[in-house]
Amino acid sequence: MNTNPSRGPYHFRAPSRIFWRTVRGMLPHKTKRGQAALERLKVLDGIPPPYDKKKRMVVPAALKVVRLKPTRKVSSRLQNKLVGPQDWQMMVYSHDGLRMPQCR
Fold it and tell me: What confidence tens digit (pLDDT) does each residue in 32-71 have?
């Protein structure tokens, strides 16, 4: 049997969509309450104009140094899956049809 990948499970590459999918897995998104909670969630790439002038904050309890045990190794699969801001910007340029910046 042949399959059509455009109908299959979508693997989002944008950091905002990766985070959105992670939060969706933590919610009962098939219920009305879960759907309402997901609609209230706002996930953005970058910092849009209303928020770029606000003071940025750090949550110390969420830092990798605090959360992970020092004796454990960090998975390289997780590091390769996430995209840095420069790489994500290049992907956006390539899909918009704009000139793609040169890689170093």
Answer: 999 999 999 999 888 888 888 999 998 888 887 787 788 8
Q: What global pTM score does this model have?
A: 0.57
Task: Note down the domain range covering 49.
Answer: 11-96
Domain count across the chain = 1
> Who's near 56: CB < 8 A, 6+ residues apart?
none
| DSSP secondary structure, the chain, as one string | ----GGGS-----SHHHHHHHHHHHHTTTTSHHHHHHHHH----SS--TTTTTSPP---GGG-HHHHS-TTSPPPHHHHHHS--HHHHHHHHHHHHTSPPPPP-
3 within a domain of the structure (yes/no): no
- Assess if residue 52 is contained within a domain: yes
CB-neighbour burial class of residue 19 (10 A; exposed 0-12, middle 13-18, buried 19+):
middle
- Say which residue the tokens 């995209």 belong to: 83
